[in-house]
Write a structure and sequence with these properties.
alpha/beta; Quinone Oxidoreductase, Chain A, domain 1; 2 domains
Length: 306
């Protein structure tokens, strides 16, 4: 089978295609014939400056072709989506059965990788902020796969004002089309906001904290890190909350499964519309990474092993 491998040379051009044997699922795992792979920002970031090869993880959707020991609830032929932590850029990938989500017959694999993982993160981050109807919400990285769905969650949740923060002005019409009431640039976040969902981190984290209203809550779910001055939180009586989806999947599996089902219900009702920037052949993984590194993507970047 075809698989993309990372070697250490310092850039996206170090992704190479190779032919390898098809993997076998272990206990609790399923083997999927991959139809689509969602490229994640954490994976792209890890490649930059890495001193050793990086496992290429990503969101995978496709058809189950084999079951590992102990897997229940799925059968060969079922279509599922889930997060693969290594060797996701391949024609066949192994998923943890407990973290797999069944794809409805009405949905494509590309829709699944644009909706499931990103939607779960958007949902979890928004709920972690304990939002109240009528509050103002700022979403950073608003044109990203998670950001586009976070905007929609905020609108559906009764926010009085939803503001999208983007890296360039040419994304403004796109995020307005997803429900943003206003659009701001990273250099001038405006505010104050009751809730901030931050998918950027790094140097933007400090300005984001300073844009909080009194009693505001900032939820950091980015892989970009960053530091804040505790005085800025004390000054506003504000909170900084960290959110990671994996902690929910492993610590509260019943909630994880319920959220997965609700995602598809919201999509069928038209409340959530997953956005896809484009589909790239598996061999063009380096080009897909470049789109994300240069912040050009509008929605999810997807690889397809055609």
């Amino acid at each position: 089978m075809l698989r993309i491998r990372h070697e250490v040379n310092g850039g996206p051009e170090v992704l190479f295609a190779e032919e390898v044997d098809r993997p076998e699922p272990g206990a609790g795992e399923v083997l999927v014939r991959v139809e689509a792979v969602g490229v994640t920002l954490p994976t792209v970031r890890k490649l930059r400056g890495s001193g050793e090869p990086v496992p290429l993880g990503g969101e995978v959707a496709g058809e189950i072709v084999a079951l590992g020991a102990g897997v229940t609830g799925f059968g060969v032929g079922d279509r599922v989506a889930g997060l693969c932590f290594a060797d996701a850029y391949a024609e066949f990938a192994v998923l943890n059965g407990a973290m797999a989500s069944r794809i409805p017959d009405s949905a494509t694999a590309v829709e699944a990788v644009a909706l499931v993982r990103s939607g779960l993160v958007a949902r979890g981050a928004y709920e972690a902020a304990r939002p109240e109807p009528g509050e103002s919400v700022l979403v950073t990285a608003a044109a990203s796969a998670v950001g586009t769905l976070a905007l929609q969650y905020a609108k559906a949740g009764g926010a009085a004002r939803v503001v999208a923060a983007v890296s360039s002005a040419d994304k403004a019409d796109f995020v307005r089309g997803l429900g943003a009431d206003e659009v701001v640039h990273y250099g001038d976040l405006g505010g104050p906001y009751d809730v901030i969902l931050d998918g950027v981190g790094g140097e933007l984290l400090g300005p984001a904290v300073r844009a909080l209203a009194t009693g505001g809550r900032l939820v950091a779910f980015s892989s970009g890190g960053g530091t804040v001055e505790t005085y800025e939180l004390l000054l506003r009586g504000a909170s900084l909350i960290g959110f990671q989806m994996r902690a929910v999947a492993t610590g509260r599996p019943e909630l994880y499964q319920r959220w997965q089902c609700e995602l598809w219900q919201l999509r069928d009702a038209g409340t959530l519309r997953p956005a896809v920037h484009g589909e790239f052949p598996l061999r063009d993984a380096a080009r897909a990474h470049t789109v994300i590194e240069q912040r050009r993507n509008l929605g999810k970047v997807v690889l397809v092993p055609r």
